[in-house]
């Protein structure tokens, strides 16, 4: 057999490389897949598709399935679309990433490696959009550092 000829059946070839070989038809590739599947067991078994979570499909860090379940429970039997949970998880992921980025910048300015509640509070209160959106009090966050303009210049407040 010369190097340009290919065998009629591919029994020991990997299915991924069988497609790349020229001259091999679909029948030979299907036989190769069956042999590949049945190498561990005696009979031919169906190959199960790998389970991929909705979060991994959408490339989101928040659990889409859990958010979908909680939405259904909150609406007490009303229908919830599949895209609603993905959208809500993506919004929550974006907000957390934005807050953590700002808080990390404040921690870096303070020469600290950990983000504390104080850094979170300063990050939220210094950003006008986040400040308007998040009205909650952060425990052990402290107060926003604020100095009045008249105290900076050395003037005293007017007395009435």
Describe this structure in words.
- This protein starts with 14 loop residues before the first helix and ends in a 7-residue tail after the last helix.
- Helix content is 51%, strand content 0%.
- The radius of gyration is 30 Å and the shape is elongated.
- The chain has 160 residues and is an all-alpha fold.
- It has eight helices and no strands.
Mean pLDDT: 77
Q: What percentage of the residues does DSSP assign to strands (E)?
A: under 5%
Radius of gyration of CA atoms, rounded to a whole number? 30 Å
Total strand segments: 0
Shape: elongated
Q: What is the CA-CA span between the terminal residues?
A: 109 Å
Output the helix-strand order: HHHHHHHH
> What helical percentage do the residues reach?
40-55%
| Biggest pleated sheet | none
Q: Based on helices, strands and strand pairing, what is the structural class?
A: mainly alpha
**Uncertain runs:** 9-24
- In DSSP terms (H or I, runs of 4 or more residues), the helix count works out at 8
Write a brief structural summary.
With 160 residues, the chain is mainly α.
Features:
single chain; 8 helices; 160 residues; elongated; mainly alpha
Q: What's the topology here?
A:
Elements: H1 15-18, H2 26-37, H3 54-58, H4 64-74, H5 82-109, H6 117-126, H7 128-133, H8 149-153
Helix pairs in contact: 4-5, 5-6
